[in-house]
Structure formats: structure tokens, C-alpha cells
């Protein structure tokens, strides 16, 4: 079967869940990645485009899809494990492996794309 898609979630979360993600914590988390983040601007952009109700496509995911999630992102790992598609976990990563573990994410993508 041909791979239809590789799915992973990348959004504005730059740190593992917890009290760190209050407004000042969010700003400090961005600084760790060399980013100057404005919590008010983030809130505005999420309100405008990120908090709307999204369609539920889980019923369309099957073995043609490959799933990748940060191993420490309990919510997305649980969702992925409930789907009938192979799951690859990125160690030492929460919700955003692209920022938290870019080399490990790249290696995971390479393995998924090289699989028969």
C-alpha cells in the first residue's frame, strides 16, 4: 500500500504543558528558542484562526497514513494510538517536535518515508 500522508501536529506550543505556559512563561519559552514572542499577539492570532471548531477526520485515517507525535504529548499520543495507523514517537519531545527535537523528527520522517 502506498503511503498517503505523514501526520503530525505543529502549532504555537513551544514548551511541554504546565504552569510555564502562562503569558510570561510563553514569552520565556520563546526566548529559549531565540524567538521574541508576544503573548497578546499569540492570543489574538489563535482567536482569529486557531480556536475554531475543526472537522473530525479521524474516521478517514487508516493504514495508508503514518503518525508522528512527541512522546511526552499525552493527548496526541492517546489520539494517535486510537487510530488504525502506525505511530512513531519522538523521544524527549512534547507537542512540537519540530522545535523541541528537530534532528529526531527528521530521523523519524526519514524512517517513515523509507519504510516499504
Multimeric organization: single chain
Give me the CATH superfamily.
Alpha/Beta hydrolase fold, catalytic domain
- The radius of gyration over CA amounts to 16 Å
Distance between the termini: 8 Å
Shape: globular
Helix content: 40-55%
Task: Write a concise keyword list for the protein shown above.
globular; three-stranded parallel beta sheet; Rossmann fold; single chain; 116 residues; alpha/beta; 5 helices
Please provide a written account of the structure.
Helix 3 links the parallel strand 2 (65-70) and strand 3 (87-90). The chain has one domain: Rossmann fold (3-Layer(aba) Sandwich), CATH 3.40.50.1820. The radius of gyration is 16 Å and the shape is globular. The protein contains five helices and three strands. It has helices spanning 23-32, 39-50, 74-81, 97-100, 102-114, and strands at residues 5-7, 65-70, 87-90. It has a three-stranded parallel sheet with strand order 1-2-3, sandwiched between helices. With 116 residues, the protein is α/β, with parallel strands linked by helices. The longest helix is centred in the last third of the chain and has 13 residues, at 102-114.
